[in-house]
Fold N-acetylglutamate synthase.
Amino acid sequence: MREVWPHWYGPCGPGDAVADLAERARSRGLPVALVALDGSVPIGTVTVGTDSHGARPGEGPWLIGLAVAAPYRGHGLGSALAAAAESAAAHDGAETLYATTAGAKGLLCARGWRELRRLPDGNVVLAKPLRDKKKGPVLWNGAPKAS
């Protein structure tokens, strides 16, 4: 997280990456933090939370904090973390998962996400349906649910 958002989590930033991740990891329900490890070293993370930058009333949950350490990028880890977040949100009963991003639009759109709107700061708000209102979950553990 420090590497991806140095302005927030870096030495001069106001954020505390360890405290934020610990808070997300210890709660029940939302938020849900997911961490990818290489042995015991964290190499990626994503959270499913209740709110995000650019949210409008009635929107949520949100995929937030998707980050992959530089040496591990380009190998599908970001997509795997997004799939895990989608699965967690579907398991929690969400019909749609939202995300605000400046840098992961291509990754998420390749996974079936669609742009809803652009924000004045350059970020885009995306959404992905997770369940068909008539048939139930579209996703479960990142794979299509058998009919």
Q: What stands out?
A: The longest helix spans residues 77-91. The two ends are 38 Å apart (CA to CA).
